[in-house]
Design a protein that fits this description.
Length: 230
C-alpha cells in the first residue's frame, strides 16, 4: 500500500527476517516522537484519543456529536485523510477546532505528522483532543501517536467478524465502539456473535454501542472519556 509502514514489504523483501529490518528503524523513530507528543499533550492538559476504523464506519459523525455535547467545549480534532479537507470542515461547523492532515498515498498517520498538525491547533481552553486516523484497519494499529487512549470503531454494516479478521487493531484498543445501532435490525446484525468475537479478541476493551446519527448511547462514551482518558 503506502511503501513506508512495511505493508508492501513482501514486494521488495520476501524473507521474514528482512522485513523486520525494514520495520524496526521506522517504528523506533516513531515511538520516540510519540513519547514527545504524549509529554506535550500532557503539559497542555489534554485528554488525547486515537480513533481508528475502516472507511465509512462513522468516525466523523461521532466526532460531530462529541463536539456538540462535550461538557467543556471546544474539542480539538486532528483529521487524517488521503485527500480533501471535507471532514475538517464538517467538524469546524459542529464547533470543533479541527486541523486536516492530507497524507496522499500514506495509509496511516504517524507521530511526526501529528506533531506538525498540533502546532497549528489553538489548544487554549481545550481539554479533549481526538486524532481521527486514516480509514484503515491494518497499518494505523502499529503506530503510537502519543495518545492516552485508543478507540477502535466498527459499524453494524461491516459484519460481526471484523475483530477476528483484524485482531491487532482491536487488541490494542482501550475501548470499542459499535456504531449505527439504529440500523442493526435492518442489516441483520448478529449482536451476540459480534460481542462474543470482541470478548475473545479484545477482553480488555470497554464496549460502547451507539448511533452517531441519532446520538443514542453517546452519553456513556462521554462519561468514559471524561473520567478515564485523563
Amino acid at each position: 500500500m503506502c511503501g513506508q509502514c512495511g505493508c508492501d514489504a513482501h514486494q521488495a523483501a520476501p524473507l521474514p527476517h528482512r522485513r523486520l529490518e525494514l520495520h524496526q528503524p521506522l517504528l523506533s523513530r516513531n515511538d520516540r516522537q510519540a513519547a514527545h507528543n504524549r509529554d506535550h499533550f500532557r503539559r497542555h492538559g489534554l485528554r488525547t484519543v486515537n480513533l481508528l476504523s475502516a472507511p465509512g464506519s462513522g468516525k466523523t459523525a461521532l466526532l460531530e456529536q462529541l463536539a456538540r455535547h462535550w461538557p467543556r467545549p471546544p474539542i480539538g480534532v486532528i483529521v487524517g485523510d488521503l485527500a480533501t479537507d471535507n471532514d475538517a470542515q464538517r467538524l469546524q461547523l459542529a464547533g470543533a477546532r479541527a486541523v486536516q492532515i492530507l497524507t496522499g498515498d500514506l495509509c496511516h498517520l504517524d507521530a511526526a505528522l501529528v506533531d506538525q498538525a498540533f502546532g497549528q491547533l489553538d489548544c487554549i481552553g481545550m481539554d479533549l483532543l481526538v486524532i481521527e486516523n486514516v480509514g484503515n484497519l491494518v497499518c494505523p494499529a502499529a503506530f503510537d501517536l502519543g495518545e492516552q487512549r485508543r478507540i477502535a470503531m466498527l459499524s453494524v454494516t461491516e459484519g460481526e467478524d471484523k475483530p477476528l479478521k483484524y485482531p491487532a487493531l482491536f487488541k490494542s484498543a482501550d475501548a470499542v465502539v459499535i456504531n449505527k445501532r439504529d440500523l442493526a435490525e435492518a442489516v441483520g446484525f448478529d449482536r451476540r456473535t459480534a460481542i462474543a468475537n470482541l470478548s475473545a479478541i479484545a477482553p480488555q476493551a470497554t464496549l460502547f454501542e451507539l448511533s452517531a446519527r441519532t446520538g443514542e448511547g453517546l452519553n456513556a462514551l462521554i462519561r468514559w472519556l471524561d473520567g478515564k482518558a485523563a
